[in-house]
Amino acid sequence: MALTGLDIYKKLPKTNCGDCGLPTCLAFGMKLAAGQAELSACPHVSEEAAAELTEASAPPIRLVTIGAGDSALKVGGELVMYRHEKTYYNPCGIGLVIEDAMADGEVDERIAQTKAASFERIGQTLKADVVAVRSASGDGAKFAALVGKVNDALGLPMVLMAENADVMKAGLEACKGANPLMHGVTGDNCDAMTALAKEHSCPVCVSCADGIVAAADITAKVEAAGIKDIVIEPAWDSPANTLKELIQGRRAALREKFRALGFPFIAFPCKQTDDTYVETALAGAYIVKYAGIVILGSLEAAKALPLVVLRQNVYTDPQQPMQVEEGIYPINSPDADSPVLVTTNFSLTYFTVSGEIEASRVPTWLIVMDAEGLSVLTAWAAGKFVPDRIAKFVNRSGIADKVGHRKLVIPGYVAQISGELDEELPDWEITVGVREAGDIPPYLKQMTA
C-alpha cells in the first residue's frame, strides 16, 4: 500500500471499538498497510476517509476485468517487479486471434483449438482463457457476425480489435453484456472510442505505434473522459522493443508511481513472426515480462501446453508451496491386501506419484503426510519427513483399519531412515521403494505378482 500503518491510523475513527475484529484502530491500520485486512471491516470509517484510503491503497497497476461471469479474466493489480519479492496475483490471459476475413473452416478450426487448449496439471485446469476477434475486412456486419459466433461458441472474455468506431459498435452490439476489451483506441479515434466504451461500460485498450510514452498521453485523455479500465499495447515493431516497453512500463508504474502507465499490458507475438516456434518463445518471454494478456496466431496443443505450464509456474506463490491435503488416497480401488505407500503433500510429488500408481493399474493405498508442502528430500532435510513424525502420521491416519497387513513402502530417496522408522513403528515392516516415480509401475507389479 502507498500509506504506512500510522498514516492509515490517522484517518480511522480511533474508537478502538473492536468491531473490525482487532483490539485497536492502530492494529487495524497496521493490518491494512500489510494488505492483511480489508477497509470494509471497519463500519465506522467516514465516507471521505474511505474514499481517500481506497484511492491510496489501490494497486499501482490497475486491476482490469474483461468478460463477465465465472469466465471473467482479471489482469493487472500487481504490486511487485519480481515474483520472489512477494508474489504475482493475476495470471496472464492466453488466447488466439480470429479474423473476419478467414474462411468458415479456419474460424471453426481456431474455435476448436481454443476449446482443446485445456490441460490438467497438479490438480489445476490450465486452459486458454481469452480470444481476440479482429476486423480485417472493415465490414461491420461481418465483424458482428463473427463476434456473435465466437461468443456463442466459446463464452470466453473477448478482445474486439477494430480501429473504426462504427465497426467496433457493430461488434459491441453483437455481444451485449459480455464486457469485451475494446482494442484499437488511438490518438485519432480516442473521442469516438471512449464514447462507445462509456455507452457499453467496457474496458479499452490503447494502442500507439510511437511507444508507451506517447501511449501515456492517450491513457491520460481516456481517463479524463471517465474511462478507468485501460489496457496498453506496447510497441510491436520488434520483439526487442516490445520487451523493453513491457519492462519500462512495469517499472514506471511500480517504482516511479507514474499513474498514466499504471495499467496492464497486452502483447501480440502473432504480429511479429510467422514462425510458430519463434512465436511461442516470444509469448513465453512476454508472459514472464510482464504482459497481462498474450494473443497468438494459433493454439495447437504443442504450443499451448508449455505456455500454460510456464504461466502456472510464474503465478504460483513462492512463499506458499502448492500442497494437497493430508490423508489416505485410494488409487485403483485398493482392498485390505493392497500395498501402502507414503509420501509428502507437495502437489507436484503427489500428482506425479499418484499418476504413476494409476498408470500401473495396481490397487494401492497412497498415504500423504503433511510436510508443509515440501518435496520428500526437502522435507527430510528440514526435519518434517523424519521417522518420529512419519510414525505419528501413520498411527493417526487410520490406514491400519483399512489393510490386513502391516507393510509400509517409503520413498527410495529417504532409504536412510528405514532403520529408525522400524523402531518407531515396531508393528510395521518398512520397505524401501524406488527413487524415481517412473519406476513405480514395474515396482508395484513385481511387488504384487
Question: Can you lay out the helices and strands and say which pair or pack?
Answer:
Elements: H1 5-11, H2 25-33, H3 47-57, E1 64-66, E2 73-75, E3 93-99, H4 104-116, E4 118-121, E5 124-127, E6 130-134, H5 140-154, E7 158-161, H6 165-173, E8 181-185, H7 190-200, E9 204-207, H8 212-224, E10 230-233, H9 239-254, E11 266-267, H10 276-288, E12 293-296, H11 301-314, E13 327-331, E14 340-344, H12 347-360, E15 364-369, H13 376-381, H14 387-397, E16 407-410, H15 418-424, E17 429-432, H16 440-448
Parallel strand pairs: 3-6, 3-12, 6-7, 7-8, 8-9, 9-10, 11-12, 14-15, 14-16, 16-17
Antiparallel strand pairs: 1-2, 4-5, 13-15
Would you kindly provide a written description of the structure presented here, covering whatever features stand out?
The protein is globular. The strands form four sheets. An eight-stranded parallel sheet has the order 10-9-8-7-6-3-12-11. The chain has a five-stranded mixed sheet with strand order 13-15-14-16-17, sandwiched between helices. Strands 1-2 form a two-stranded antiparallel sheet. The relative contact order is 0.09. Helices cover 40% and strands 16% of the residues. Helix 5 (140-154) links the parallel strand 6 (130-134) and strand 7. The protein has 449 residues and is an alpha/beta fold. The protein folds into three domains: 5-57, 3-methyladenine DNA Glycosylase II, Chain A, domain 3 (Orthogonal Bundle); 64-314, Dihydropteroate synthase-like (TIM Barrel, Alpha-Beta Barrel), CATH 3.20.20; 327-448, Rossmann fold (3-Layer(aba) Sandwich), CATH 3.40.50.11600. It contains 16 helices and 17 strands.
